[in-house]
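Lab notebook, bench 4. The sequencing result for the construct came back, and we need a structural model before the next group meeting so we can plan mutations. Quick request posted to the team channel:

Model the 3D structure of this chain.
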Amino acid sequence: MGFLGDIGSFIITPLYFLISVVLVGWHKVFGTIFGEASGASWALSIIGLTVMIRAALIPLFVKQIKSSRNMQLLQPKVKELQKKYGHDRERLTQETMALYKETGTNPFSSCLPILVQMPIFLALFRLLNAAAHDKAKGVLSKADVNALSNAKIFGAQISDSFTGTHLVSVRILAAILVVAMTATTFLTQRQLMSKNMPADALSGPYAQQQKLLLYVLPLVFAVGGIAFPIGVLLYWTTSNLWTMGQQFYVIRNNPAPNTEAFRAKQKRDADKARRRGEDPDAGTTAAIEADEPTAAPNTVKREQPKRVPRSQRKTGGKPAPKQNPAQKRPPNQGPKPKPKSTTDQGETA
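Done. Here's the predicted structure in token form:
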């Protein structure tokens, strides 16, 4: 346990300084507007911290989107492997991982943003919890800790939690934030499954994983959220709102093929083209063909007629029989008459 504690301290301690630097920086900005002792300044500082962290995680989010899309497109091949190796679980796992490796797909990439945020989430939780007990972490001074621990929004202290106090104002605000955090998590996952997953991807192990996340994650956040300080709930709710908006933008503008969102984008593009006086089908024909899974057409290869040599035309296209050089001369008809000389022609005359 001591070894694990040392590893956790090694990871969390730098995050205390990083989070506290960003938090104090935003507090100086909003403190000039609302006052340094105002709870709104600290609440907006936490929101600013969340926005900066999520902006830094955009590359990971893009990687997550690409991985999720590849997982969806690979579902037909995964089903074929399940039919072929369903009796051998070990071989099925090997073949499935080989397929992912060939296509450059990482099935665990969808968890990267959450895994990266967990240490940050834990560091902020401990920082606010320490502030509630008048302990400074990172670059927070005693004055900052005193102001943060006493900062209030809607009558509830930012460092209080649902289970840590009997104040009604704290419990009401904490309950609202827990419900908001749970609802945004559920809606984000449902938005992905209902609009940006093809029909053939709604079954199989990947779909089961998504359905599990749809119901388990909100439940985990709802149960654990009652122990989080108001500031942490504010951070997590803001992060969920960012995720939901970011995913809505991606699904609307770059949806996965063969999905409801993909067909809706085709319709919007066709309407825009029609309003501009353009052919609405010009830009979407190829996309529609890709959207509708059709069998490969049986195309007939057209062959150009071959040129028949003149010697074969009289025989109906059949090659004429080869002749020996001796057979090329006509049959013997006697000696050829000699040409008359000029003297003979004169005597005759």
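Confidence is low (pLDDT under 50) at residues 285-302, 341-349.
Will bring this to the meeting.
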